[in-house]
């Protein structure tokens, strides 16, 4: 039974991703639409989802479990950062490359991927609590460390933490800790609106997947990566395209970085689904 339920949830996730993919490929969803939907989800729908997660009842240990998850994820981010530091040292990366490596290697994508998976596996309310703590942990690590890598010397500003999702997450934790409940109409509103988050988030994943091929890159980056995949070395590519070797290195790095940022979401998604199947055997 458990396998059948999980298989059904995974099928729903796949179809929602497929819908976004088809929409982008057919031209129905444009780049500007994707950006609008992403902002709409993160700034309006997701906060409602967080508040709806405070409706969990009869689980006093949930808050403790969420706190443990917060600490464990922070430790995971620190460990990932250390591995990136070692890798950059071995490859003699510039500070800019190290910043990009850290930012992409530890990106958990808790909102667009983590929330649907947690909801499918743990139920909407409990899944929302754990996904919310994962996002909070990532925000602490990102805004206190990663941002400083991209902006050396810039001081950490409190206002960077003040986002609709973070405010809603804190409110959710307060409600869970105190046992207070939102007024019934507000709770129903948050549950109804928050229920749109998962399907829309997965549609955005499908849109990104449709835009994740080499053809979506700028023409010069696309040509360089195609030649690189074909086995040509940097000097040969520079000679064929009539550009400098430094330009080849820069555009190749930017192209692979762009593809990695988009494809990392799907590696995480399908890797997680495979792990869930493995746990059932």
- Rg, nearest Å: 21 Å
| Number of DSSP E strands | 0
Q: SSE order in H/E notation?
A: HHHHHHHHHHHH
How many DSSP helices? 12
Proportion of residues in helical segments: over 70%
Q: Could you say which structural class the secondary elements and strand pairing correspond to?
A: mainly alpha
Which strand-content bin applies to the residues?
under 5%
- What's the mean pLDDT score? 76
Structure description:
It contains twelve helices and no strands. The protein is an all-alpha fold. The protein is globular. The model is unreliable at 270-281 (pLDDT under 50).
Question: What is this structure's SSE topology?
Answer:
Elements: H1 2-25, H2 31-52, H3 62-91, H4 95-105, H5 110-122, H6 124-150, H7 164-178, H8 184-194, H9 197-210, H10 219-229, H11 234-241, H12 245-280
Helix pairs in contact: 1-9, 1-12, 2-7, 2-8, 2-9, 3-4, 3-6, 4-6, 5-6, 5-9, 6-7, 10-12, 11-12
Could you provide a short overview of the structure?
Helix content is 79%, strand content 0%. The C terminus is likely disordered.
What are its keywords?
disordered C terminus; globular; 281 residues
């Amino acid at each position: 039974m458990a396998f059948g339920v999980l298989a059904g949830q995974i099928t729903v996730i796949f179809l929602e991703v497929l819908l976004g993919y088809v929409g982008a490929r057919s031209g129905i969803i444009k780049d500007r639409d994707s950006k609008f939907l992403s902002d709409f989800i993160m700034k309006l729908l997701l906060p409602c989802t967080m508040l709806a997660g405070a409706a969990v009842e009869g689980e006093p240990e949930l808050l403790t479990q969420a706190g443990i998850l917060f600490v464990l994820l922070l430790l995971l981010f620190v460990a990932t950062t250390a591995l990136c530091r070692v890798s950059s040292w071995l490859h003699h990366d510039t500070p800019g490359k190290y910043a990009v490596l850290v930012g992409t290697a530890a990106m958990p994508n808790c909102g667009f991927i983590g929330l649907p998976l947690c909801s499918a596996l743990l139920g909407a309310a409990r899944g929302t609590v754990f996904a919310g703590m994962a996002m909070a942990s990532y925000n602490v690590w990102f805004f206190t460390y990663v941002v400083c890598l991209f902006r050396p010397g810039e001081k950490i500003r409190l206002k960077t933490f003040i986002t609709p999702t973070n405010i809603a997450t804190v409110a959710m934790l307060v409600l869970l800790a105190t046992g207070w409940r939102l007024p019934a109409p507000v709770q129903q509103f948050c549950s109804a609106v928050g229920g749109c988050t998962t399907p829309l988030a997965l549609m955005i994943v499908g849109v990104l997947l449709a835009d994740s091929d080499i053809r979506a890159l700028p023409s010069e980056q696309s040509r360089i990566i195609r030649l690189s995949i074909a086995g040509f070395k940097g000097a040969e590519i520079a000679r064929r395209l009539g550009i400098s070797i430094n330009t080849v290195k820069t555009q190749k790095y930017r192209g692979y970085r762009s593809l990695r940022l988009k494809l990392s979401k799907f590696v995480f998604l399908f890797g997680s689904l495979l792990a869930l199947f493995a746990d059932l055997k």
